[in-house]
Amino acid sequence: MMSKLLLICFLFFLSCSHLLLSSSFSFSNSTKICPHGQALALLQFKQSFSIDNSSSWDCDYFGGTTSYPKTGYWKEGSDCCSWDGVTCDLVTGHVIELDLSCSWLSGTIHSNSTLFLFPHLQRLNLAFNDFYGSSVSAGFGRFSEISHLSNLVSLDLAWNYGAEFAPNGFDSLVQNLTKLQKLYLFGISISSFFPNSLLNRSSLISLDLYSCGLYGRFPDNDIHLPKLELLYLDGNSNLSGNFPRFSENNSLIDLDLSSTNFSGELPASIGNLKSLQTLDLSDCQFSGSIPASLENLTQITSLNLYHNHFSGKIPNVFYNQRNLISLYLSRNNFNGQIPPSIGNLTNLRVLDFSDNQLEGAIPSSVYGFSSLSFVFLRYNLFNGTIPSWLYTLPSLLELDFRHNKFTGHIGEFQFDSLEKIDLSMNELHGSIPTSIFELVNLSSLNLFSNNLSGVLEASKFEKLINLTYLDLSNNMLSLTMSVHSNSMLPNIQALDLSHNNISGMFSWNVGKDTLFYMNLSYNSISGFEMLPWSSMNTLDLHSNLLQGPLPTPPNPTFFFFSVSHNKLSGEISPLICKASSMQILDLSHNNFGGMLPHCLGNFGKYLSVLNLRRNQFHGTIPQTFLKGNSIRTLDFNSNQLEGLVPRSLIICRELEVLDLGNNKINDTFPHWLGALPKLQVLVLRSNHFHGHIGFSKIKSPFMSLRIIDLAHNDFEGDLPELYFRSFKATVNIDEGNMTREYMGETYYQDSMVVTIKGLELEFEKILNIFTTIDLSNNKFQGEIPECIGNLNSLRGLNLSHNYLTGHIPLSFKNLKMLESLDLASNKLNGRIPQELTSLTFLEVLNLSQNHLTGFIPQGSQFQTFGNDSYYGNPGLCGFPLSKRCTTDEVLEPSQEIEAEFESGFDWKITLIGYGCGLVSGFSLGCLIFLSGKPEWLVWIIDKNIHKMIVRNKMSTHRRGTRRS
User: Which stretches does DSSP call E strand in 44-184?
Assistant: First the structure.
């Protein structure tokens, strides 16, 4: 009986449902339920915009939806309730939902827009359009005056960059939309404090305020929003606060505070977020350790703590987080080892512990990582061998272990899914495993700076057809190539095999149409069959055994070409000038000869560096330079060039380095170069320059000059006091607040030779704080100008082997950064100023062969100088000389000096002998500055250089004569 009754009820239900559906269908198709006024308002709204498919490009790319012009199907006279994006109330016909997202709309929403004539609207979605310049607030202010707007539960204006709220507009909107459940304002400019009233909306479900210009402090009070599932505050860099405290009664699923200024420690209450699936705190200022309550987040799928200040050990809290897919803990200060509970994350796809201080070995017994695709452990202190389970991951796409201390051999990969491998900067040894050459999907292989060895056969790379980047530099690998081998690596773009054991002719047929960067420097390559690379723009062949004529770049798009430190010879063909895009051309340290092509000075407006140092070129320097050129460095040092300094150099307004040293140039001092605003280095040493140098028509010449070397010429007259007063680049350098950099480009740095007591030392890089003046071995006369003492950032001063007279200026006590002072072989007289003992950086001092008298100052760096610093001054006495001082010769120390010795040694004096000085301060200066230690606290002078200096001192002492 009961079954029959149920059957009857079911049939009755079907019958009623059919009638209802038929009635509804008939009603919606035969009756226009949309009020005429609302249809007209919608059409007017449509007419206020243009249609542009580029306005919704981000919808296709980020939104996961295909965009199309919804309003294009709106037709006058048809029922607006049937239009795309329009939803009406079935009873009243009022428009209650308007979804015009991804609709190609382009234009401005004006305050009188008909959009604001729909008082029954409950949901409005205008996302992914282009309302650039729209001021949303004015119109929505009108909204707030209509009581029916209290029905609006969802508002989506996301991805309309350039639209904005006027002052107080956002507050007004929030206060009036009392039933708001979902608010998406992604990218809309609010420029406001976070309104506290939003945290009182118990109906709130979703709140997306990404990159809205919020500022100030996020409220510290507890959040009681039981329905809130999504909270996005990311991208508001001026919004600060602590991690929000949520009550236990919460439904939060997604929380994103990334790229804000939130700080402090994570509270234990984070464990209340038991429904949380996504937590993104990247690029914030959080610190402290991770609380153990994190283990309560059992539903978490993505945890991102990237780039904060977290410290301590990574807690062992991952036993119950089996849903975790991505884990980002990189760029923090975590230490210790990887916690064993990581092995429980069987669904993990991304593991990123990079840029921390983690150490120890990677756990060796880990199973079940079948989905792990990305493993990033770079820049840590991991050691030991790479565990075998990493080679067996079936889904592995990227493996990045660079800059650790891994040892042992690289194992054989069991699957060919890998796309990127980076094991560089470790201590791995042995040969490259065979399995790597079977990874057909590999696009990037980075193994540089290890101890890998063995012979690579070029033919092994045949299967790596997708490889675009290959760096095997700084190893001990050799390469065998077949001249007639087929073209390989058809998609290779960058190839670095530098610092290896590759020898003989290079004939590897690789990347003929795609290779744009190749570095083969520091090998023993003797030549090339050809340079076939049509897309090449960077070719570095320096420090090899190349012989014969200069290889000609195969295309005019080259912008970096270096063959320095080889054995190339012959003349430079004018064809080199066809490389009109060339930026850096380095032919230095070869055996090139002949005349320089006249086109070298003007073959391209992009040329930045032309380095021809240490060759055998003769004739004159090119006399014409292209107007508006970009030349930054010209280095013609150590050739046989003669004639005059080209006057056309005056148009090289970007010139920073001009090195014409060690040639046969016969000219007067090029005072007109003082007009070049960026000139920092001027080297004219060992030429035939002559005459006086103090003349200038320029009011403040050489304002940027900080390195000048005029040694070994025939200059005469007084020292150029005008120039000394103008050298502003050697005065008051604020080293504490300036970035230490080397002169040059990202890939290429300038070099120079510095002479210290006759010993030439070549620095491959020049620090931007290095300052030196060398006017030695000329015919200057007169007294040393007191104004030199104003150059208080000067590192080196060499006025030796001239005819200078008078006293050592007392103003030299102001040269607090001075590391080398050479006044030898002059006619100076009087006492050595006691005040020079305050120069605590002074590493090299040579006052020999003068007419100085009296007591040699004691204390500070003067305790470290030997006899050779003073010999040839019969009137000097005291340590370290054997001649003792009489009572009349002893200089009474100043009260200041006495005070320094009353209670032992002054803090400066206790550091004597620890100044790295000129030699180490600049050849190894990068290491010092990167470590943040003052150079005088670090003793890193190379022993061989010290031996050379000692030998030079001894030989100079034995000669005891003035150098010619």
Answer: 50-51, 86-88, 95-99, 105-106, 123-125, 154-156, 182-184
- Is residue 390 within 8 Å of 414, Cβ to Cβ? no
Could you tell me the CA-to-CA distances from 656 to 634, 662, 674 in Å, in that order? 9, 19, 12
DSSP state of 744: B
Task: Give the chain's length.
Answer: 964
**CB-based contact 104:52 (threshold 8 Å):** yes
Q: Calculate the CA dihedral of residues 787, 789, 791, 797 and round it to 10 degrees.
A: 110
At residue 177, the pLDDT reads 80
**Among all chains, which residue has been given the structure tokens 């202010």?**
141
pLDDT in tens, 243-287: 999 988 899 999 999 999 999 999 999 999 999 999 999 999 999
Identify any residues that bridge with 505 across adjacent strands, giving them in sequence order.
527
Residue 634, pLDDT > 70, answer yes
Check if the beta carbon of residue 610 is closer than 8 Å to that of residue 633: yes
Contact 406, 430 (CB under 8 A): no
Specify the 3-state DSSP secondary structure of 104.
coil
Q: What is the DSSP letter of 571?
A: P
* Residue type, position 801, single letter: H
Distance, in Å, from the CA atom of 629 to the CA atom of 829, rounded to the nearest integer, reads 49
Strands 95-99 and 86-88: antiparallel
Residue 644 in tokens: 């005059």
The CA distances from residue 468 to 234, 376, 400, 432, 518, in Å, are 35, 20, 17, 18, 12
- Reading the block at residue 680, the tokens are 């920092």
DSSP-assigned beta bridge partners for residue 279: 255, 303
Tokens 């508006």 identify what position?
Answer: 628
Residues near 484 by Cβ (< 8 Å), separated by ≥ 6? none
**Residue 609 corresponds to which amino acid?**
V
- Answer yes or no: are the C-beta atoms of 833 and 811 closer than 8 Å: no
Q: What is the mean pLDDT of the chain?
A: 84
Q: Are 119 and 150 in contact (CB under 8 A)?
A: no
Q: What is the pLDDT of residues 139-151, one digit of tens each?
A: 453 433 333 456 7
What's the rounded Cα separation, in Å, for the pair 63 and 78?
30
Q: pLDDT band at residue 711, thresholds of 50, 70 and 90?
A: very high
Do residues 547 and 567 make contact, with C-beta atoms less than 8 angstroms apart? yes
CA distances from 426 to 164, 385, 477 (A): 51, 11, 16
Burial class (CB in 10 A: 0-12, 13-18, 19+), 868: buried
Which residues have CB under 8 Å from 103's CB, separation 6+?
56, 67, 68, 69, 70, 71, 85, 129
Q: Collapsing DSSP states into helix, strand and coil, what is residue 115?
A: helix
Residue pointed to by tokens 């030079």: 952
Listed in sequence order, the residues at least 6 apart from 145 whose beta carbon sits closer than 8 Å to its beta carbon are: none
**Scanning the structure block, which residue is given the tokens 């406001």?**
192
The string of pLDDT tens digits covering residues 818-835 is 999 999 999 999 999 999
**CA-to-CA distance for 701 and 704, rounded, in angstroms?**
9
What number is the average pLDDT over the span 384-395?
A: 94
The pTM assigned to this predicted structure is 0.81
Residue 706 has pLDDT above 50, yes or no: yes
Tokens at 649, concatenated: 């150099």
For the chain, the first-to-last Cα distance in angstroms comes to 131
- In the chain, the amino acid numbered 326 is S
* pLDDT given at position 754: 75
pLDDT at 670: 95
Q: What is the CA 52 to chain-centroid distance, rounded?
A: 37
Other beta carbons within 10 Å of 487: 13
- Among 522, 460, 516, residue whose Cα is nearest residue 497: 522
Spatial contact of 351 and 372, defined as CB atoms under 8 Å apart: yes
Cα separations (Å) of 355 from 306, 311, 328, 941? 10, 12, 11, 31
Q: 664 to each of 428, 617, 619, 633, 750, how far by Cα in Å?
A: 51, 11, 10, 20, 23
